[in-house]
Structures are given as C-alpha cells and as structure tokens.
Amino acid sequence: MVTLDKREKSVYARVLTNIRFACKRDFLRKRFVIRWTIIITVLVLVVRFAGKTNFQVDLQMGSDPHHDHQGIVEFKRAADNYDGGIKPVEPLEPAAPQKPIEPVKPAEPLAPVAPIAPAAPVAPVAPVAPVAPVEPEAPVEEWVHAFTGPTKQPPMYLDFIDRNLPWDKDAEEETKKTWKLNKYLSDRVPLNRDTHDGRHATCSKRTYTKKMPSASVVLVFYNEALSVVLRTVFTVLKESEDRLIHEILLYDDCSTIDELNAPLERHISAYPKVRLVRSKERGGLVKARMFAAREARGEVLLYLDAHCEPTPGWLEPLLEPIGLDRTTVTVPSLDAINWEDLTYSGADSIWVIGGVNWLMNMLWAPIPQRETDRRQKEDPFPITANLRTPTMAGGLFAMDRLYFKELGEYDEGMGVWGGENMELSFRIWMCGGSMLFVPCSKVGHIFRPAHPYDFMGNNGDVVSNNYIRAARVWFDDELDFFFKIRPQFKDKDVGDLSSRFALRERLQCKSYAWFIKNIFPELPLESLPSC
User: Fold this and answer.
1) What whole-number distance in Å separates Cα of residue 391 and Cα of residue 404?
2) What would the pLDDT profile of 16-56 be if each residue is shown by its tens digit?
3) DSSP H or E stretch at residue 308
C-alpha cells in the first residue's frame, strides 16, 4: 500500500479545507455538493493512479525495497507538481433573506353551549297487585317431583377383584360364553355407576303426590353374577327416595356358586334395608317369586330381575297409580343394557303396548287410536301419559302386595319360567284389575342371548306345560283355537287345575271373549288362520 509522508498529508489537508470552506458557503445548494463530490473523486483517482500511469509507481512491487523507494520519490515529485494546479474556489454570494412568516391569526372563540335542561322526574311505578293463589287439588307441600338421587357417589367395586392386573381378553370371552353376559367387565365396573336418564322432557314437568305406599323391591336370582346383583341393589338405593323403599328383598333360589355366599353377605352387611332370604331347595323362577312375595313386608311388591339398573325418577311414577287404585298394576319402560359391553340404550317414551297371539306368545303391538285419544283427553302431557296394556313381559312390575295375594299369586303348578306373565295378565284384566305401561319410569335391563341356567328338565316341556295350564283355565270356548294351532298339546297332562278354576269362580272373572273385545280387539276371532 502507498504511505503518505508529511508533505503529502498537507496536500490532502488543503484540499479538504477548501471543500469544507465551500460546503460552509453553500451547504444548502445541492449542485455544490454534487460538484465537490466529483472533484474529490477525481483527485483521489489522480493521486492513486498518477504514479502508475505517468511516473511508473508500481504499488504491487512491495517485495523489492529498491522499487518501493523509487516509487515513493516519484510519487512525491508528482504530488508537488500537482499541488500547484489547485485554485481556491470563488466565494458564493449570500442568499437573499427570506420573508418572515406571518403569524397565524387566533381562531375566534366558540360560543358557549347552552346547558341541558334537567330531565323531568320519572313517576314511581305503581306496585303490582298480588296474584291470587291457585287452589291445588292437594296442599302444595304434598306434591313433589320425581326423586333424582345424588348426582355423583364414590365408586364401589367388588372387594376381591384386582383391577390393576392387565386385561385378560381370553377370560373376558370365556365369561360371555358361560354367563351369557360380560361378567369379566361387569366385575370391574362400579357397582353404583351413574345411570342413564333417558326420560322424555315432559317427565320432569310431572308432579306426584307425596303420600305413596312403600315398596318391597324383590330380586329373585339363581347363580347370577354377584356384580350384576349388587349393581341392581345399589342402583335401586341410589336412585330411589329412602322413604319409598321399605326393603330390598334378595331371594336366593338355592344358588351353587361361591361368590353368592359369604362375598354377597359381606357386601350387603352395611345396608339395613337389604334383606337376604335363601331357599333350601330350588323351585324355579315362578315359585321363587311367589315364595318371596310371602316374605315381603312392604305395601307394594315391586319385582325386578336381578340384572337391572333403574334410572333417576323411576319409582314415583310406578307407585302413585297403585296408591290411587290398589287394583292397578304398573310396568316400567324397559331400556336395553348390552350384554357384551354393558352400554345403555333406549327410547324416551313408550311407542307400543303388549299384545298376544293365538300361540299365547306376547307380542309388541302399535298403540291403538282409542288409547291415543284417551291420553290426549285425560293428560296434559299425552306423549308420556300412562298406557293401558293388555299384557306384560312379566319380569318387572309393581302390584299391591295384598291384592297380589287376593288375585291368586302365581300358579304353583307352573315350572321354572315361561307363560306366567301371560296368565297373570289375563287374570288382572278379566278379574277386575288393570295394567299400565309407565313411560316416565325407566329401568335398564340386560337382555341376554340365552338363559344361563337350566329349566330343571326339558326346557320345551316346562314352557309348554305352563302355556297349556294358562290356556285351559282362561281361554274358555276359544281353547279350540289354541289346540288347532298346537295340536300336540291337546292331550298332554299338565297336572291338577282345580284350584285355579276355583279361584276364577271365586273372583267372578270375565270371559276370554270379553278380554278380546274390550282389552285387545286387535286380535279378533276371525283372524285365526285355517288349519
């Protein structure tokens, strides 16, 4: 690189002095700035490259001391000669003075705003006259809404199941085959799990009389899964008002599995309203229900299968009609609990009634127009008004305990299960009672794909015997229709029926023709198929 000595530096200093002098004279004029920018650029180029073009100053020969010294001498000589060529810049004429800026005239003051007149005082509102109270049919404190129970409870589990173990899928599938439901899952689900409230919205608008009969909730079981039985018990307690539950009567029809012995007693020991009665020998469902009714102490018998889960507000709608008329039998609306995964499903109301065909099978029939008209006339919420139904499934119903006894209980000659629901339905209607489906009482029920227990003999023979006994007692002249459809039953011996005929005579029951004409006219005699 080129190093400048003292003289060279003085040359640069004079040049910069002239530039500063010129800029001070006319710093506001742009053309001078541009002019001197060009001059400085030219001077720098001349100084740096003059030696290379005219005096052979080779700035790239720094490796040779002789060439470096010679180049510096020649550069000094060129700088001396060039210095004389710079002339001072003529001074600029001073700029003409600017006219002073006239001051801005002050704005005229705004006229003052007239004050706003105060608003006129508002006249006080006259007090509303009190509305005269409507006279209820009963005192206000005597009417209550359906009990909904606590919203949440600490979960309860079987005390002998380790829920921290890995899930055993093979064991789960095995319980489905053996128990006809997912017992493995049931054993690990809370025994007091929250229930599904699937009632129609109008159910919450209904009120019920506070004075109702108390119920003995009767659960008959045989070799039922313990978790399923306990879930039924604890759900009844959780979803029911305590004053309406006289007791929960567990009737064990001589079960043979260990978990229904000491484990069952241990889990219910803290609940004084839960009472366990054990049969010394197996009698079958029909007889066990009859024997359990004789043990019950509540005003109403409320039968539930031992694999149910009542929902909020289920009890009051069942008990009130019985309190008003002891000959009324009430049936809750059944929702489905899936047997494989225990999920809950159901409709918000009842859209069918129980019917019957000539085989004496219960069937589901559309609600007849006469019943729709009656509900619209008698009830402010007809969609959830109670429904008159000719028959019932028989597993779940409520009935005055003394009326059940007066009406003849169950037929003791019937076997384990089957047909007893139809026989009782005929007897209720034909002997002066009535039966209602109750849409606002909803109970979940596990519908299993098959019965997990045996029928104490040939299943077909047991059920057919029950049907034949009912038909012989209650079908009157229409019995011929039954035997035309089932000729194999005509000559079958089903035991002594004299006590049942005597019962019918004592109760002065109506004919089966009357039942068809007045209760289920959808099954006229003319509908019998030719054989």
Assistant:
1) 16
2) 565 565 555 554 455 555 666 677 766 656 555 544 444 33
3) strand 308-310
